[in-house]
């Protein structure tokens, strides 16, 4: 599914770095029957801050909404502040000259925050700490931001929303976060990583960027890595 998404991103006025395109290709990969390859396991990204993961996923879901009429994207962050910051970034994206013609309206009420498109697709934003992300029916894409702060029980409450996905390729779960601190409740993120590195999981993508465990902090090659 990536070529069409990438082409639409270009049409919307954005070019992606090579690594972003590589992640996108994995994210929207499909099996021979046309279903998303990661429908069950999801797409996990453990990346440093400020590298462009929100830019990648934001434009990708905008493109997916435009290309697939009537789909629903739920975007959750753990903290209300993060959810609001992402919403503001997406509002700015929706108002760009090449994107605005596709947008019906921007939702800013306390009850509903997000972006609605002319083709009945929509992206809704909220914080998991406020209970957002549960109880929706027919979610096609579930974006879990700050995924390093996610308990298994919270994930279990949200994943069923993908069961009634309307998109032909099925539901898509995207987990993006930074490497967790020792105090983060990161059960779900760590389990995804373990499943990926063990080789046992055949239905998930795991993308991780970071220095080697024994790296010298002054080694410039490690900075790039």
Describe the protein's topology.
Blueprint: H1 2-11, H2 18-27, E1 42-46, H3 53-67, E2 72-77, H4 80-94, E3 103-108, E4 113-117, E5 122-127, E6 141-145, H5 152-158, E7 172-177, H6 187-198, E8 204-208, H7 220-224
Parallel strand pairs: 1-7, 1-8, 2-5, 2-6, 6-7
Antiparallel strand pairs: 3-4, 4-5
Helix pairs in contact: 1-3
Alpha-beta classification: alpha/beta
Sketch the topology as an H/E string, one letter per element: HHEHEHEEEEHEHEH
Low-confidence stretches: none
Q: What is the count of β-strands? A: 8
Strand order of the largest sheet: 3-4-5-2-6-7-1-8
Helix content: 25-40%
Tell me the number of helical segments per DSSP (H or I, 4 or more residues long).
Answer: 7
End-to-end gap: 28 Å
Please characterize this protein's 3D structure:
The protein is globular, with a radius of gyration of 17 Å. With 225 residues, the chain is α/β, with parallel strands linked by helices. The relative contact order is 0.18. The model has no long low-confidence stretch (mean pLDDT 87). The protein has helices at residues 2-11, 18-27, 53-67, 80-94, 152-158, 187-198, 220-224; strands at residues 42-46, 72-77, 103-108, 113-117, 122-127, 141-145, 172-177, 204-208. Strands 3-4-5-2-6-7-1-8 form an eight-stranded mixed β-sheet, sandwiched between helices. It starts with a helix and ends with a helix.
Summarize the structure.
This protein is α/β, with parallel strands linked by helices and 225 residues long. It has 7 helices and 8 strands.
List the main descriptive attributes of the protein structure presented here.
alpha/beta, eight-stranded mixed β-sheet, 225 residues
């Amino acid at each position: 599914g990536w070529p069409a998404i990438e082409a639409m991103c270009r049409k919307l006025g954005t070019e992606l770095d090579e690594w972003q395109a590589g992640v996108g290709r994995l994210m929207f990969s499909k099996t021979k029957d046309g279903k998303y390859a990661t429908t069950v396991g999801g797409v996990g990204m453990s990346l440093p801050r400020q590298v462009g993961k929100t830019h990648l996923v934001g434009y990708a879901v905008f493109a997916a909404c435009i290309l697939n009429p009537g789909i629903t994207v739920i975007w959750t962050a753990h903290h209300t502040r993060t959810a609001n910051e992402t919403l503001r970034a997406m509002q700015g994206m929706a108002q760009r000259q090449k994107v605005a013609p596709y947008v019906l309206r921007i939702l800013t009420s306390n009850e509903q925050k997000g972006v609605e498109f002319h083709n009945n697709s929509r992206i809704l934003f909220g914080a998991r700490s406020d209970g957002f992300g549960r109880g929706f029916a027919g979610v096609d894409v579930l974006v879990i931001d700050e995924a390093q702060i996610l308990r298994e029980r919270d994930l279990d409450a949200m994943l069923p929303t993908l069961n009634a996905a309307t998109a032909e390729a099925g539901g898509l779960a995207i987990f993006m976060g930074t490497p967790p601190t020792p105090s983060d409740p990161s059960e779900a993120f760590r389990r995804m990583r373990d499943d990926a590195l063990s080789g046992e999981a055949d239905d998930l993508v795991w993308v991780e960027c970071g220095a080697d465990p024994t790296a010298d902090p002054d080694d410039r090659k490690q900075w790039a890595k």
